[in-house]
């Protein structure tokens, strides 16, 4: 686990953290299994003692310390192995929404990898029913609206791409909450252009394109995501900072980046927070959104990511509220949904400091 939390240096920092804690927020880049809290992981690990995932929360913190991106994916897949039944899927999804609601997350696009579950034997129809049941309960009980992004685990090959697009576009499976189509996992040795036919089919079926790109490889991967996969937002896009033409393109065409600062340190994609290119993105006029990726695995949460961003970008409350509004603007909510959360952010900010 990585401790990238911003040190509480004084009253101003504490005030900003309180502001962030109550701020209505939207999250656009957060993974389903990667959001399992230590409590859920421990519960599942205890239920499935044959797994190598420790059930003790302290041992879990050690287990979630990664040597590099490949090690992170190895650990991630060991947690995926704990999700074995539709009830595991429902519980995980519902509890993730509860954790979001506690942080005043009003809307989230949750990245789900259905291939990883169906190939492990979970029935596809039962999987969809489980996530939809959790989505509806979470909205009714917590007021947090969830939408889905189905991603291809690229390293698992074209078989996984075919299965993911089938589940995303076939009316027998496609869940009501699905809005977008993604591509995750390692980038090295997994060229983006091979996935073009699958993205074409997903886009033709009305889904929005949101691949990961430029997280662990160079800016050419981001270009591929834009030109071949017709990306409307980029997951991470960290290496875009190395290509001024690309930054100018992202800014001009209003292609937002889903920035996840602590994740980039935890997976060692970026060496230190000080070296994170987030400031170069905003300087170039790129629309930056703040996200948590796999929060418990990286020892963070969305509120902490906003605090990290505020420090790196030297923002006060209004600057942080603008970041929150960026996420709403970059979301796949309809106009009325965007207006509602933006108004909530404005009302909250105008009333600050709360008496
Ligand atoms: N920061 C991240 N950056 C990128 N991806 C991230 C990040 N965080 C979480 N993920 C997730 O990791 C999964 C990886 C799954 C994967 O590679 C794989 C390979 C071979 C077989 C199987 C299988 O299931 O049998 C799975 C992706 O689908 C993605 O949703
Ligand atoms: Zn991700």
From TrEMBL:
Domain Adenosine deaminase: 24-347
Keyword entries, A-Z: Hydrolase, Metal-binding, Zinc
Cited InterPro entries: A_deaminase_dom, Ado/ade_deaminase, Metal_Hydrolase
Cofactor(s) recorded in Swiss-Prot or TrEMBL: Zn(2+)
Organism field: Streptomyces canarius
Protein name per Swiss-Prot or TrEMBL: Aminodeoxyfutalosine deaminase
Superkingdom: Bacteria
Entries under PANTHER family matching the protein: ADENINE DEAMINASE
Protein family: Belongs to the metallo-dependent hydrolases superfamily. Adenosine and AMP deaminases family.
Pfam families recorded: A_deaminase (PF00962)
């Amino acid at each position: 686990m990585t401790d990238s939390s911003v040190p509480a240096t004084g009253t101003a920092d504490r005030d900003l953290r309180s502001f962030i804690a109550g701020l209505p927020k939207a999250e656009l880049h957060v993974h389903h299994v990667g959001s399992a809290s230590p409590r859920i992981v421990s519960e599942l690990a205890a239920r499935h003692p044959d797994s190598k995932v420790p059930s003790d929360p302290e041992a879990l913190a050690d287990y979630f310390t990664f040597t590099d991106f490949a090690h992170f994916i190895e650990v991630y897949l060991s947690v995926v192995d704990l999700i074995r039944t539709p009830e595991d899927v429902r519980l995980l999804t519902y509890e993730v929404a509860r954790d979001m609601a506690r942080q005043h997350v009003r809307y989230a696009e949750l990245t789900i990898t259905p291939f990883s579950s169906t190939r492990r034997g979970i029935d596809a129809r039962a999987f969809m029913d489980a996530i939809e049941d959790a989505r509806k309960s979470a909205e009714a009980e917590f007021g947090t609206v969830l939408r889905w992004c189905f991603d291809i685990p690229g390293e698992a090959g074209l078989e996984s791409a075919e299965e993911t697009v089938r589940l995303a576009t076939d009316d027998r499976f496609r869940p009501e909450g699905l809005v977008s189509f993604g591509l995750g996992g390692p980038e090295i040795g997994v060229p983006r252009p091979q996935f073009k036919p699958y993205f074409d089919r997903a886009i033709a079926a009305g889904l929005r394109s949101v691949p990961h790109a430029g997280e662990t490889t160079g800016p050419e991967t981001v270009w591929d995501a834009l030109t071949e996969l017709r990306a409307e937002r980029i997951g991470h896009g960290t290496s875009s900072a190395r290509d001024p033409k690309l930054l100018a393109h992202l800014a001009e065409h209003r292609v937002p980046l889903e920035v996840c600062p602590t994740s980039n340190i935890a997976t060692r994609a970026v060496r230190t927070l000080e070296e994170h290119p987030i400031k170069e993105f905003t300087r170039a006029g790129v629309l930056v959104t703040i996200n948590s990726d796999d929060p418990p695995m990286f020892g963070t949460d969305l509120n902490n990511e906003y605090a990290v961003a505020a420090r790196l970008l030297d923002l006060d409350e209004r600057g942080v509220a603008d970041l929150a509004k960026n996420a709403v603007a970059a979301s796949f909510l309809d106009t009325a949904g965007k207006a509602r959360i933006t108004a909530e952010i404005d009302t909250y900010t105008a009333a600050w400091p709360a008496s």
